[in-house]
Amino acid sequence: MEIVEKIHDIFLEEAKKSPILMSDLASMERYISESYTGRSLIELLQNADDACASKLIIKEIRKQVYLVANNGRTFDERDLEALCRSGASTKHRKNNTIGYRGIGFKSVVNYSNIVHLYSGDIKATFSKMLTQKEIPEAENVPLIRIPHNFEGNEYIKYIYEYLRNEYTTIFIFEVNNNCLLDEIEMFDSSCMLFLRNIKEIIFDSKSRENVFLTRNNQIEDNIKMVQLIGTEDNQNWLVYNDSKNNVTDIAFKYYDNETVMARENEAVFHSFMPTNNRVNIPLKINGDFSTDPSRTKIVLDTETTDTINNVVELFGKIIEPIWQKKTDIYGIINILGQASLDPLRTIKGNTISDILVEKIIKKSQNIVLLNNINLGGVFLQPQWMTNDDFKIICEINDIVGIGNELELDIKGIMKFAKLIGVHILNIDIILNTMAKNVLSKETRIGVLSEIINRSRLGLEKSTLYNFNNANIISFESGVKSLNDYDCKELVEESFNLAVIEKVDSKSFVEQFYKKMGINYAFKFNDECEDSYKKNNLDLGVKRISKASNVKKWRSVEENTIEILRQPMEEKEVRLVRVNGTYEYPADFILVAAMNPCKCGYYPDMQKCRCTAASIERYINRISQPLLDRIDICVETPQIKFEELNGTKKEECSDTIRARVIEVHAIQKKRYQKEDFQFNSQIPAARIAEYCALSKDQEKYMKKIYKQLNLTARSYHKILKVARTLADMDGSENILDAHLNEAVCYRNIDKRFWRDSL
To answer: In Å, how far are 281, 548, 703, 719 from 344, measured between CA atoms?
Structure first.
């Protein structure tokens, strides 16, 4: 008690000399508590870890009274004085503690009016009421400043009980709200991953199970399995640590003998404790990052930069042996292949996530070069090429190929290779090889389909020359190049059918054949039905079947979705039949939804079991040209429980409807002299007139156009949406905020489709 009285007298005398100081400290304390909202429990956990405690217990001993105890080092006089002084912690960076600011404990002001401390020779009470009585001249006083003699005698029996159970430091909080209970219920067990000492948290509460952490399962040097037992799913994490710098860790979530993608809310940077900074890779990263006072946001300074470099070096140690051994037993490359960069980073400024991903890409490229592999000589296998043909082309041209077979050994290698700048096999290399060799029918069909699609935008002279010399097309007498082709000979019917299926347009194939002087004989009618059934081919055309005198369309096939492009663009449906061509109006609003993968759970790899290739195939059912014809494309993530169970009052439909009608009226008035009524109908030639931008806005959109690699069509969509947003705000001119929001509605297609093979 002598220690408490001594420190009490020192701080009381200081306060009486300057009552205004107490008011300032109270304001600062309130600011700290607001900054640490929802993190007070984490701070208590960190303090216990710094005290070398292995166990922490939280117990509600009576209504609105909580006991928090740990078995770590007890408080001494120096510790108590540091606790009372903001920013006067005895902890320092680069040693055995993870806290260093000395202000985190003040966050308990969020939920407590009175705090009792019982540790070694320290028995103290912090109370605003007691402090205010001693300093009546102060307008306001802080909670954690002046310690008083222990006033919690009614809790002595609980204290002695836990002291007997080898707990050394005990806090008792008399709470005034449910904040602490909410934190207990929402506690993320992965907060314990990077603690150095704590192995067990006991929640002696009906609302929460106990959590045990084990970190003794050493797999390899610098690799350990950390288990969080007692959570809903008993989480396992594969943690890589840098032995030279033991504060740097990379943690991969581990499930069923392979790494899986961490949930979005789990994939965050840790400065020992979790921050709000997202890692643009589905994993966790821990390091000695500098943070703001709330410890929720990482600050980009020299300390953080050094830590980022340490993390990148650790990534290199993980990647290099995988690349050398050509095997990845844990599936780590698949996780790294999910890395992404903010497409607007050059405009908004780089975040720590973008800096890290860019450095990882550079590091990975250097590793490839160190293995005497030139990135320019590495190519990915196209989806439409067989494994055997890909091997043949790679061997003949002496190039390094990353194909589907390597994907079996190293899951996600193709996506990771694309991340570091590896390109799909060049079409000219393929054509040159095909001039000397006849490849499989499947590959030849894929090559021809690729050429036809490219020809719509124009072919390079070199590509056209190589195509004429390549043995691609199956004629009735066999496979020939166009240079060897007899103009009277017909293209093989089954080959034609397969090409039309790939291109998804008979007219495009017809136009290309005509341009190249190729003779063909093929009609889209029932006479061909036996032919394509015999050859087990699917035209991608929906046929009508009769059942009970009711006509039903077959379910939409993969390629048939693309048929929507023409009616969406031209607002009419054109039917071509033997007897004539028929056109029908088709002015409609398309509202559609899709899953990101076949099972629907991607990118939550805790639930998703789709392979990278199957996800790629599924997403590619929707092409970029089709996306360009859609005004708004947004992601709808899984609803959080708090949102589902919340009491927030949502906007009613009548209010929304009234706003839509009002915006429609604005547009009808604006376009009353035009032959269109709405912003979505503005012709390309009139965009500049009705969606006028200032010089600064034009400069901004120029950057966006290049950064997002927009097409002219998608660029115009952004301007039309921005025009509508301005109308909703009652603004005559398009403002910066409207452009920014409109751009956000185009980001999702770049996230999911930017890397498609």
So the answer is: 17, 56, 9, 17
Give the separation between CA 311 and CA 283, rounded to whole angstroms.
13
**Out of 317-321, 497-501, 603-607, least confident range:** 603-607
Mean pLDDT (whole number) for 312-338? 88
Q: What is the pLDDT of residues 655-687, one digit of tens each?
A: 888 888 888 889 888 888 888 888 888 888 888
Taking the C-alpha atoms of residue 283 and residue 269, their distance in angstroms, rounded to an integer, is 9
Structure tokens at 746: 């185009």
Q: Which residues have C-beta within 8 Å of that of residue 70, sequence separation ≥ 6?
A: 48, 51, 53, 55, 56, 57, 167, 168, 169
Question: How do strand 423-424 and strand 378-380 relate by DSSP bridges?
Answer: parallel
| 3-class DSSP state of 204 | strand
- Arithmetic mean of pLDDT, 632-651: 72
Q: Which two tokens stand for residue 411?
A: 């899951």
Task: Write down the domain spans for the chain.
Answer: 2-186, 212-370, 653-753
- What is d(CA 334, CA 516) in angstroms, rounded to the nearest whole number? 43
Whether the Cβ atoms of residue 738 and residue 726 lie closer than 8 Å to each other? yes
CA angle 537, 541, 543 (to 5 degrees): 100
Residue with tokens 């398009």: 734
pLDDT by residue (tens digit) across 38-88? 778 888 888 898 889 999 999 888 888 999 999 999 998 988 888 887 644
Higher pLDDT, 323 or 577: 323
Q: What b-and-e string marks burial along 15-44, b requiring 16 or more CB atoms within 10 Å of the CB?
A: beeeeeebeebbebbbebbebbeebbbbbb
Q: Up-side HSE of residue 689: CA atoms within 13 Å toward CB?
A: 9
Q: Which of 742, 741, 733, 586 is nearest to 670 (CA)?
A: 733
- How far, in Å, CA of 368 to CA of 442, rounded? 32
**Could you read off the pLDDT of 349-383 as tens digits, one per residue?**
788 999 999 999 999 988 877 666 677 778 999 98
| 276-280, 346-350, 362-366: range with lowest mean pLDDT | 346-350
| Percent of the chain scoring above 70 in pLDDT | 84
For residue 380, give the H/E element and its range: strand 378-380
E strands in 559-648: 572-577, 580-585
Side chain identity, residue 128:
K
Nearest to 98 by CA among 193, 228, 196: 196
CB 250 within 8 A of CB 268: no
Mean pLDDT (the chain) is: 81
Q: Say if CB 112 and CB 173 are below 8 A apart.
A: yes
The residue type at 519 = N
**C-alpha to C-alpha distance for 696 and 329, rounded to whole angstroms:** 51
Angstrom distance (rounded) from CA 227 to CA 238? 9
**CATH says 2-186 is which class?**
alpha beta
CA 499 to chain centre: 37
pLDDT per position as a tens digit, 132-143: 999 988 888 888
For residue 227, is pLDDT > 50? yes
Closest C-alpha to 122, from 266, 23, 2: 2
Cα radius of gyration rounded to whole Å, the chain? 33
pLDDT of residue 102: 52
Q: Taking a C-beta distance cutoff of 8 angstroms, is the pair 694, 732 a contact?
A: no
The full 3-state SS of 513-542, as one line of letters, equals: HHHHCCCCCCCCCHHHHHHHHHCCCCCCCC
> Rounded distance, CA 62 to CA 60, Å?
6
CB-based contacts of 207, cutoff 8 Å, min separation 6: 181, 184, 185
Q: Mind giving me the DSSP string for 56-87?
A: EEEEEEETTEEEEEE-SPPP-HHHHHHHHSTT
Q: Is the pTM of this model over 0.70?
A: no
**Angle between the N-to-C axes of helices 427-434 and 387-397, in degrees from 0 to 180, rounded to the nearest 10:** 90
Nearest Cα neighbor of 180 from 35, 30, 44 is 44
- Position 689 pLDDT exceeds 60: yes
Q: What is the pLDDT of residue 485?
A: 81
